[in-house]
Design a protein that fits this description.
This protein is 51% helix and 23% strand. The protein has 420 residues and is of the alpha+beta class. It has a six-stranded antiparallel beta sheet with strand order 3-2-1-6-5-4, with helices on both faces. Helix 7 packs parallel to helix 8 and helix 8 packs antiparallel against helix 10.
């Protein structure tokens, strides 16, 4: 009996020990599970926070892409295929249909570029794929199908994924239309050219004006100083005529400069009146008939001798004087004809046609610029045609030139017949 009790007591102690060990293991496992669960919970919270941040970043990035009108894309190097992720490029103007510029074969995309740009762009992409360059940046023109128009784009790209051999397997890039920037660049180049040309012409003008003013001024001073010593009435008359002629030349030069300055500054108002156009043109022509070279005749060609127009008579008169002066100066044989056509759409063409030496095509676009002279050795300040253009523009009109070397020139004024 005692043996049985001792055995039972030992078995109970062993059981208690096992129970306690199991309880301790269970509690340890529970603590460990709780710790792991809390850690996973924290990781999950962090992941959710990162996802939230990523979502916010995506929204922000998409907004930036929209604001900057940028498209993002990726290219499979092996398949040579481009896929657009986001495309917020401007769809204005000559934009090509979406199906032509989104996902597709690289060769087709390059084939849409201007023939001068396509080889350069394809070479740059190839260099990026082969690792010869780390970044791709190109500006190029995209041709609009079935037209001769183009628009400008700018692209950046770099390698986003590489294979085990280190070669590029995926490219990422952006594209953006840059028509406005290219136009601005072109305008800046044109503005710079015009500024440089204006500076050159002003320098030439100052040199020319110095000569043009000095010539009549020297004549005036010289003949005036000689005049007191001349007793012959006939010789005195010749000298006085020469002084008067040179005085008029000097006055004309100053008047041209002042007239252009006033009109361009808007400080000279129009003096509107209604008058007979043919009559005014005949009055303007009369003094020039005697200034034509021997063998040159003056003709008229008026579509309607009774036509009345309403505009600034003084500016029409001054413009025609300049045109007739040039025609008389450069016509050695043939004729000088003044005329006008019948009004069309409340506008009229008034013209001066001569059979003079003519003007080359390259100079026809420059002759109306201030201070420009086709031949620097021919007297004149280079202001006559510039004055004509300024006066005609102030009347809401235009002045153009058609000329052929050796055949002559026709200068045409197109103005409203009723000035408002």
């Amino acid at each position: 009996m005692t043996t049985i009790l001792l055995y039972a007591t030992q078995e109970s102690l062993l059981t208690d020990v096992i129970v306690w060990i199991l309880m301790i293991l269970t509690m340890s496992a529970s603590v460990l599970l709780i710790f792991i669960q809390r850690r996973k919970g924290r990781d999950l919270v962090n992941e959710l926070e990162q996802l939230d941040k990523l979502k916010k970043n995506n929204v922000q990035n998409e907004f930036i892409l929209k604001a900057l009108h940028i498209a993002t894309w990726h290219m499979d190097v092996q398949k040579q295929e481009i896929a657009y992720d986001f495309d917020y490029r401007e769809r204005t103007g000559d934009w090509i249909a979406d199906s032509s510029v989104t996902d597709g074969d690289l060769g087709r995309g390059v084939g849409m570029l201007h023939e001068q740009d396509a080889p350069r762009v394809a070479r740059s992409i190839q260099n990026l794929c082969e690792g010869k360059i780390s970044e791709y940046h190109e500006e190029y023109r995209v041709c609009v199908p079935n037209t001769n128009r183009v628009y400008w784009e700018e692209s950046f790209a770099t390698v986003s994924e590489r294979g085990v051999d280190g070669r590029a397997t995926m490219l990422v890039g952006t594209s953006k239309r840059i028509d406005d920037r290219k136009k601005m660049e072109s305008d800046l180049v044109d503005a710079r050219y015009r500024a440089e040309e204006s500076d050159r012409l002003k320098t030439a003008f100052l040199a020319n004006m110095s000569h043009e003013i000095r010539t009549p001024l020297n004549a005036i001073v010289g003949f005036t100083s000689v005049l007191p010593d001349v007793d012959s009435a006939e010789e005195r008359k010749v000298l006085l005529d020469l002084i008067h002629e040179n005085t008029q030349k000097l006055l004309r030069i100053v008047d041209d400069v002042v007239t252009i300055s006033k009109i361009e500054a808007g400080k000279e108002d129009l003096d509107i009146s209604t008058f007979n156009l043919a009559m005014i043109l005949q009055e303007v022509m009369r003094p020039f008939a005697s200034k034509l070279k021997e063998g040159v005749v003056m003709n008229t060609s008026f579509a309607d001798p009774e036509l009345m127009i309403t505009t600034d008579m003084n500016r029409i008169t001054e413009t025609m004087k300049h045109l007739l002066s040039n025609a008389a100066k450069f016509t050695n044989v043939g004729s000088v004809t003044v005329g006008f056509d019948m009004p069309d759409d409340d506008r009229i063409n008034i013209w001066v046609r001569d059979t003079g030496i003519g003007i080359s095509a390259e100079h026809q676009s420059q002759i109306f610029e201030s201070f420009f002279k086709v031949d620097e050795f021919i007297p004149g300040a280079g202001l006559g045609l510039s004055t004509c253009r300024t006066m005609v523009y102030s009347l809401g009109g235009t002045v153009t030139c058609q000329s052929t070397i050796g055949e002559g020139s026709t200068f045409t004024l197109n103005i409203p017949i009723k000035q408002k």
